[in-house]
Write a structure and sequence with these properties.
ten-stranded mixed beta sheet, binds ligand VIB, single chain, five-stranded mixed beta sheet, nucleotide-binding, 8 helices, Thi_PPkinase, binds adenosine-5'-triphosphate
Length: 289
């Protein structure tokens, strides 16, 4: 009996207390993995100078209500695109943020560089207005197999000459809320272009991908975001995810759809770290002001 207990104890010890050599291996792996830093400082009026690496932003407007901070993102961005009907939103809603000003002055100030899509939603007057101002119009009406967001991301990747793409981040407004098939299509785009930094935004939350090939450090901008957050395995189950800085941290935890996914979590520190064997979606709430 005593021997059996000893064996059970020894086995338990073996599984719960890793040997010094295996601990060294884990540490080595963590050191070998590159860090990827994330910050929602684009939601601040001025981006702190010490932000490293400094990013170049492109703003992509989709066909949904413009979030209240769209003019701010516009000012941070060096390239501005509308996906098809997104141009109607820019035309109709941008003047509403500046009620004291003449609507056409506002429209001229917020002129997109490019409108791209299958052009079944943009109104003729809107197309003609921006075309007359010099906006590049890319009509892809023959392509009915990719979404307008997808088409715009490929434009930024392949055609936007003169834009520093080494540290580019694409901010997508109007990506969440509304029609569920569109939302899923938008999430699919960030998975499909997993090597590009793409942030989906609405008035209430933002989402971006955490590729499994990095150890992630998320710098929380507490004045504008949080505390509610989520980590969701997308596409395939995660056998192991480890976090720090959350109320319900994961510790080598498995997650999958139909099993555990981390929603309604709470950010507890200004720095959150995430490491996983799978690509995960990171989402955080945006404060109302
Ligand atoms: N309700 C919505 N929720 C989330 N994203 C949206 C929504 N509506 C449009 N979008 C996004 O804006 C892009 C442009 O919208 P637009 O209405 O022009 O698309 P569309 O191709 O005409 O859509 P559909 O033909 O399916 O109605 C879409 O590709 C999608 O990414
Ligand atoms: C399997 C399959 N499902 C849906 C569509 C339709 N579709 C997908 S993206 C797109 C363009 C929207 O601007 C359209 C019409 C398709 N082609 N293939």
């Amino acid at each position: 009996m005593l021997r059996l207990q000893a064996i059970i104890l020894a086995k338990a010890k073996h599984f719960t207390v890793p040997s010094p050599s295996s601990l060294r291996l884990v540490k080595k792996r963590m050191i070998a993995m590159d860090l990827m830093h994330h910050s929602s400082c684009f939601l601040l009026p001025t981006i702190p100078l010490q932000r490293r690496p400094s990013l170049t932003y492109a703003l992509l407007v989709l066909n949904q209500n413009l979030p209240r901070f769209t003019p701010l993102l516009w000012n941070h961005a060096q390239l501005h695109l509308c996906a098809d009907g997104g141009a109607n939103r820019l035309y109709d809603e941008m003047p509403l943020f500046f009620p004291q000003e003449d609507a056409s002055d506002v429209r001229r100030r917020y002129k997109p560089d490019v409108i791209k899509g299958d052009m079944d939603s943009i109104r003729r007057e809107v197309l003609e207005f921006y075309a007359s101002l010099g906006t590049e119009i890319v009509d892809k009406s023959h392509d009915q197999d990719t979404t307008d967001l997808h088409k715009c991301v490929t434009y930024i990747r392949d055609s936007a000459s003169g834009l520093d793409k080494s540290n580019l981040c694409i901010l997508v407004v109007g990506a969440l809320g509304g029609r569920f098939d569109h939302e899923m299509g938008n999430l699919n785009v960030i998975c499909r272009f997993s090597s590009m930094r793409i942030v989906l935004l609405s008035n209430d939350s933002l989402i971006h991908l955490l590729p499994r090939t990095y150890c992630h450090v998320i710098h929380i901008q507490t004045s504008v975001e949080g505390p509610h957050c989520g980590l969701i395995p997308i596409g395939r189950p995660s056998k192991s995810t480890t976090t720090t800085g959350l109320q319900w941290d994961l510790n080598n935890t498995a997650m999958e759809f139909g099993g555990l996914v981390s929603t309604s979590n709470i950010v507890k520190k200004e720095k959150v770290t995430v490491q996983s064997d799978c690509d995960l979606l990171w989402t955080i709430s945006i404060k109302k002001l």
